[in-house]
Every structure is written in structure tokens, then in C-alpha cells.
Amino acid sequence: MVATQQTIDKVKEVTSSYKYGFITELEAEKAPLGLSEEIVKFISNKKKEPKWLLDWRLKAYKKWLTLDEPNWAMVNFPKIDFQDIYYYSAPKTKPKLNSLDEVDPELLKTYEKLGIPIKEQEALAGVAVDYVFDSVSVATTFREKLADEGIIFCPISEAVQNYPDLVKKYIGSVIPIGDNYYAALNSAVFTDGSFVFVPKGVKCPMELSTYFRINEQNSGQFERTLIIVEDNAYVSYLEGCTAPQRDENQLHAAVVELVAMDDAEIKYSTVQNWYPGDKDGKGGIYNFVTKRGNCLGKRSKISWTQVETGSAITWKYPSCVLKGDNSVGEFYSVAVANNAQQADTGTKMIHIGKNTKSTIISKGISAGKAQNTYRGQVQIQKNAMGSRNFTQCDSLLIGNQCGAHTVPYINQHTPSARVEHEATTSKISEDQLFYCLQRGLDSEQATSLIVNGFCKEVMKELPMEFAVEAQKLIGISLEGSVG
Amino acid sequence: MSLLEIKNAHLKLDDKNILNGVSLSVNKGEVHAIMGPNGSGKSTLSYMLAGRDGYELEEGEILLDGISLSEMEADERARSGLFLAFQYPVELPGVGGMSFLREAVNSRRKFLGEEELDHLGFVKEARKEASKMYVKDEMLKRAVNVGFSGGEKKRFEILQMAMLKPKVSILDETDSGLDVDALKIVSDGVNAQRNNDNAIVVITHYQRLLDYIVPDFVHILSDGIIIKSGGPELALEVEKNGYSGLINAA
Ligand SMILES: Nc1ncnc2c1ncn2[C@@H]1O[C@H](COP(=O)(O)OP(=O)(O)OP(=O)(O)O)[C@@H](O)[C@H]1O
Ligand SMILES: [Mg+2]
Questions:
Q1: Within a domain: residue B184?
Q2: B107 and A445 in contact by Cβ < 8 A?
Q3: Is the residue at B24 inside a domain?
Q4: Which of A434, B12, B42, B78 is the most buried (most CB within 10 A)?
């Protein structure tokens, strides 16, 4: 891949200023277009990273060059031009719009239905705002409280500076830089994300939410999150936001790594509601995420719970590597695809330790012309004696033009293990709709109620407030899907 | 003015004539019973009134409290005060009974311009009504109609009726599948709701129900048309002689 002339000029400009120590004053809003070794260096320089991290990024970049985009997922989209993307923008780029009047009225309607205050609406829609976010001050007190318990919760860029040993030890330990095309890309160019460390014996007293993370603007495109929970410790982490978020970047490729030691537990909940695009999927976000948890310790437990309603394309398989004996992996998922959305999502459960247990509950809802695929792998390795997996995979179709697909892969190398797979496909029946209408519910309420009933087993895994919002969200994302 | 007025209702399903000119006037405070052989169009009539998709009138008119229902969707009709207790109540997996009731009641209240009930107020009200129908709290936590016994389903229907306080209720074979005790509970529940401002239409095959819910009028529906109307004694006649005599006479 050849860097464009623009890139080369820009990098020259930057690196020469750096030589003279002007880097701190330099307010380049964006790195030049495209991706090259120079851009990787540019990002690392901008973030004043230690050499080991720059080397790590460069290694990832070189690996990326040798990889091909995966093409096995059931999603269709025009080829992405990776040289036509900006890989770094300073946190303070000016919002594009001047007032809410310029925002897509459909989006505003949705905000209203979700009951989002005007100020937050402005921020979400990318309108210029001149007040300081309340959340910044909230976040500061929040972090102090956590620090008292010895918990670290900060942007990963800050962790690189303040806790380099921890970051160095664990980054890429769960998802190696060459794991897949998008993970390699993320490793080369990640901008920011969360870092969480919970020390031995500490149960984190509150849900950690990305909402409280300072400095997250513009880190959304190539986010990198690392969560480490030591022996006997616990954390519940919430990612995302029910409000539909617009982003000028179409491609998102996040990486999330979790590490759980002996008797540790991590609960990771996501509500993903990126802009799905218009009715034909135009302008929607492509979301290619790699998420994996390592149950390293004995009796450790990692649960992924996700509610996926947004994005034009979702490519996402939060997985668990069950190394520790008696460790437990769980995956609870609701994926809604409406209109032209395409979702290919599922999980991998890799049983390595003895008596490891995994549970997969996947609920896929398709409406409009959407395609929704569950793809799951359960692997029971040689030494995983007495291990068990239970998979339940249900699809609900709304209308006749959408599709649901289930693709289970099961590799079992131990006779003493037990793997169970159940799958169902159903439709919202006319009888059910009529019954609800006859009780005075309108067809949107009725659909929302029936769909939320269908998802109940997953929704009950979400933290309470999150669940209430997610329920509303599911209703809203299916609006107009029933005549 | 009648509370419910059906004028010359004609309806086809799949090109088959099912209703062939049904006319019926129901006044405030009245209870009407509709009897008739299997397949005579009783459930069809109830679906037509409730506004089910595909059950649009070919000809004729229906008025609820003087307002034409023809242009209204099923949910609007329900909010306006039309209630149908289903012959076969529908299962809603994962949808908790209590939340379902709350959504339904709040939709109706909103329509009436009444304030929506808060969570606690609602639960209290629902439990009170439920205990009258011998519906246990535990049942309200379960998914609507899922795994309910036949009798439980019917009791849950009447509980909904009690909560929604409709103007006109149509009870389609609410007595079928009930044991003797449940029949009494359900009938008591229905009778408790009779007042001078509402009306009830019960569809049944059995005179026995009409011992409990005593109707003011009995109508015999045959082949999609009411062939005879009368007082409670008409039901006794059906019980004794069956429909054939009536149908042949018509
Ligand atoms: N979609 C349809 N297309 C054609 N015919 C239909 C359709 N649905 C129902 N029918 C017919 O309409 C007639 C009336 O049915 P309906 O269910 O109204 O009878 P009913 O009086 O309620 O009978 P029962 O006493 O057995 O409950 C029956 O002959 C039935 O087979
Ligand atoms: Mg019937």
C-alpha cells in the first residue's frame, strides 16, 4: 500500500516540527488521509507513547498488510477503501452542525421518544455546544471514589502513561495482533478506549459505564478496551448508549479484551445503537468488532450481554476462552435488524480447562429486508473433560422479506463433554397482534411487547436501568415494520 | 339510542358468505345471548365487531354509542370501549401478565383522558380484581396465557374485562372448558360488572351459563343470520329440542 502524497507531506511537516519540540503546540485536527507506517507513527507520536507500544503498533500494521478481509460472514457491502479514511483526529474537531434545526428530523423524533434532554440531543447529533458537560465533573468524583477501592478506570491512553506495565502485559494477550483483519487494523491505529483494573478481592461497587469516561470524543472509530480483574474480584461494565449516535466515520473496528483470574467475574453489557442508515442502509455505520474474554483463572466467569439494534452492518462475535478449570462463559444476545440492516453476530466458546461450562442464548429479530445471522462456535478441546455447553438460538421474523440464518459450528474432542443446541424460528402471529390490538395497544406497542417478550431471557441479564432503556429501544428500532 | 347497533351486516371470508345480514340492537344495561350451531358465524361476528384484519364488512354498518366503527382499526375500537373475550385466548410468550394488563389499561385510560396509573397503584388495583377472579398473583407474573389451563385462560379474560371497564363486552364461549366452580367464579365476575351504562353479549352453546348470567334477550344465529330472537325461554327451548326445529321453521 502506498501512502498518498498528501500523507507524506503532512507527516513530513509533523515530524519536522516534532524534531524541534513544537509538538505540543501543534493543533493538527486530523492526520492526513490514508494509512501507512508514517500514519501509525504519527498517531503514536501524537499520543506520546512509549517505544514498545509504537513497535507493537507497527508490528500490527505489517501483519495487517498480509491479511485479507474476511469474507465468510453473511453481509454484503461495497469494498472499503482503507486509504480513504482518516485514522486520527484531534479530540476537539468542530462539530459540523450549528443547531438542531440542521439535524435529520427522524433522528430528533427518536431522541424525543427516548426522552433525551435537549442538551444531550445536541451533543449526540454533533451540534456545536458551548457548555461543559455535566458528566465530566460527575466522572471525576466517580473516579476518585473508585481509586479509594484501588480500582483503575481511565482512558487507555492514560493507562499507557500511568500503568505501562499492566498495559504491556495484557494488551494483545487475549486477541493477538494478527487475530483477524480488523483486530490487526485496530492494533495499529487504535485511538482510545477504556482501561479497567480491579485488584484482588475487590468487588467494584458500581456499574462502570463508558458514559463516565472522560475524553471519549472521537475515540469511537478504533476503540480499544482492556479489562483486567484479579482473583476474587468483580466488575460490571456497560458499554454504549441507547440513543442513536451519528458518527462521520463509517467504519468502526473496536477491540475489547477481558482477563479474569481465579474466582473473578466480569459482566460486560453492551447496547449498540449506531446509525443504521436510511431505509436503504445508506450512510449507516459498519461495525466490525472483536471482543474476547479470557477466563484464565479457576472458577472464573465472563458474561457477555449485548443488545444490537444499530449499524448498517454488524460483524461481531464476543467470545470466551475457558482456560481455567471450572470456569464459566456466557453469551446473551439480542440482535435486531430492520430495513436494510445486516447483522452477522454470535459467539465462540473455547473450552480448554476441565469442567468448564458455557451458555449461549441468542435472539435474532429480523424485519423489513434485513438479514440476521447467528454464527456460533463451540469447541471442546482434548483436556476439557466434563465440560458442558448449552446453546439456544431463536429467530423471530416480522414480514416476508427478511431472513434469519443459524450457523452453528461444533467441534468436540472429548467424549465426556456434553453439547446441546436448540434452535427455533417463529413469526409474530396475526393472532398475537390481534389479541394485543383488541386490548387497546397500537400495532407498534404490540410489536414491541411481543418482541420484548421474545427477548426476555436476555433482557433480564442487563442491569436494571439499562434494560428499561433497551426495551424502549427495541420497540423504536422496529417502528413501521408492522402494517 | 342503542349502545351497540349492528345493521344488516354482510361479510365474506375467502369468497364464502359467512354473515348474511345480521342486525342487532343492544341497549345500555342489557345482556344478550347469541346461540347457534357450530360454524354458524358467531366467532366471525365477534371478530368483525372487534375489527380484525380481513373481517371487514361487505355491506351494513356497526355503531358503538352512536359512532360508526367501520373506519376504526381494532385498537381504536378497543380503546373506545369494545371488549372481546376470546374463544381461544392467545399465548404471548415472555410477556408478563401484569405488564400486559398495565399497557392495556393505560391505553384505555389515556383515551378516556384519565391519568395513567402509577406502578404501585396499578399493581394494587390489579391484585384486588384478580383475587375476585381467584387469579393468583403468581399467575400475573407468568407470561400471558402461556401454559394456562383452559379455565385459567377464561378467568384471565374476565379479569382483563374487569380492569378495562368496557362499554360493550362480547364473551365468546367464555363458559367452554370451565368446571362447575370456575363457571360460578367467571359468572360472578361478569355479573359484578353489569351496570346501567354498559352491555354484554354472551356467545354460548349452553343454557347452563344463562342460569348464572341471566340474559334479557336470546338470539339464534344460523348460517350467518339471526333466525329467531326471544327471552331466556328461547335458550331452554334450544336446550330441549336442539336447533333443527328452529332452523326448519325459519
Ligand atoms: N378464513 C376463512 N375462510 C373461509 N371460511 C372461513 C374462514 N374462517 C372461518 N370460516 C368459516 O366460517 C364459518 C363460521 O365460523 P365461526 O368460527 O364464526 O363459527 P362459530 O359460530 O363461532 O362456530 P363454533 O360454535 O364452532 O365456535 C365456518 O364455517 C368456518 O369454517
Ligand atoms: Mg366460535
A1: no
A2: yes
A3: yes
A4: B78
